[in-house]
Design brief:
The protein is mainly α and 180 residues long. The protein has helices at 2-25, 29-36, 48-56, 74-93, 102-131, 136-171, and strands at 60-63, 68-71. Helix 4 (74-93) packs antiparallel against helix 5 and helix 5 runs antiparallel to helix 6. The protein is globular, with a radius of gyration of 22 Å.
Amino acid sequence: MKKTLNNSLLLFVLITASIISTSCNNLSPEKTFEIAALNSNLLSRFGSKDINYKLESEPQVYDETQKKMIPSSYYDYFKFDITNLETQFKRIQEINEDDDNKELLQASKDLFSYAIAKQKEGYLPIAKLKDEKASPEQIEKAIADFDASTRNEIDAKFTKLMNVAKTYTDKHNIDAKFGI
């Protein structure tokens, strides 16, 4: 009797732990939408808008030891922002993919992976030009070249994500507004 009770108790604990573990890994549709689609707003100024905004700002990064933003080079400032995007991308990758959210997650991953790669290839060299006191003409040309090489692709990926996200929100009755 005691052995049966212990086995039953052990089975109950295992089932409960399994349910809790599964429920923690399966996010609600609202949370999935928030992480996979709403966070794409971080990329809404991608390209010249974003670069020019950052170049007009005082470059700063977060210093963990001081728990505050501190002055930095433009290169480190741009790198800091890319690291933040990588953190958001990791959150997207951690969502369990299923038939319901697969298209949304894939479109989000596609957008974020492209944007991060292009920022590393394009933003960082531009930041380095600024740090090295390159002429405004050199910087403007680098920004224009970057836009020319990425604008169509980033717009297509962003549009695809918004279309998939709209379908996802309609399916799950999530109140969200789309548009610029």
